Amino acid sequence: MQYVVIFIASLLALPHPIPVSSLHAASPDQDMTPEERVKMMDDLDAKSNTGAILAGKEDIMESGGRPFPLSMVVGQDNIKQALLYAAVNPKMGGVVISGGRGTAKSIMARAVHRLLPPIEVLKGSQFNIDPEGVDGMDDFLKTELSGADATPLDQRDTEIIQPPFVQVPLNVMEDRLLGSVDVEKSVQTGKTVFQPGLLAKAHRGVLYVDDINLLDQELANILLNIITTGYVIVEREGVSVRYPCRPLLIATFNPEEGELRDHLLDRIAVSLSADASPLSLEDRVEATSAVLGFAAGGQGRQDGEEAEAALKAAEENEEDLKTAIVFARELLKELELLKTQKAYLCEEAIRAGTQGHRAELFATEVARASAALNGQQVTADDLKIAVKLAIAPRGTFTTQDMDDMDMPHPSPPPPPPPKPFPFTLSHGIK
Asked: Is residue 283 part of a domain?
């Protein structure tokens, strides 16, 4: 079954500055089971006019097309694995990918966005606020709810949308990134009107920063501070606004154009290189055939029966991964590491000579995401993956390849007894 998604950028061209008019009451909010969420995803994908992708003033996807499937990217297994973990656990801390030109960095960033499940938001919200207020609320909504006749949060209209994909341009100004006062609307209404920025649109979606090493240093610091705290605070021109911003951060850069500063790398959970494992001749031939056979934008019949079969297999794989991510997010809420497992990660961080405590903190979230995606409690294999992705790259005493796991390690603690899990992933990324 082929899925065609038309990404619409027109929402950005028709902004609705704050204040927003009151929302109407709706039927009470109902909790959805993972099975209902999977069905909702299928229904949403069946509509060709859903899912606005906000990226400045233009779609970053091809108009009317679909991104290159993640499973059709040849090689880069570690990067694809890390992106899947970040899709399961957006609180993991983001992924930064380095590599030369033409190494599929941006392709993988766009492809993983397609695997994210739809989100439920308050109708008319410019901040993608969750109806249950799980990830926080903006100041405008809090003020509205404090009114005597305010409609309760669980009685407001909601809508299901595709998670946004927001790209931060290199020449972005701080006002465009954080938000600013809409002067024209303020003059017309006689009140200070706030126009949300790109970070407001990125909440609960994907925030993509290409060439992050070329981004203004001050803006890069502001961006990573916000990703860490989960909130944006704007104080300027007589306006004070606070709103949530918890996106999945994916950043890419080409080391030939300048290295990324160490303190920025340290604040992103996983840092991997697309140049770490060069493709063999056979892999390069396979990659070339896959790209040439993939019709422009993924529309219509592909170039030959072999390419058509490859795309069909990739789409079936995507459906398995979408379902797995939905169930994994539900399981993630209950997953915790044992004290002995945390001690193992801390011991590995000490042995690697990492600075500070971010290594073990990020590793904990990676281990949880890995276990959730596999539908199980945290095991020794999940801990080893966490060390490989989050601790080893930060090490100052380790000079060997990250894939070399033969160095002596303390034995990982035994995992807790497994719990039943309603879904088993039939096959992962090839």
From this structure: no
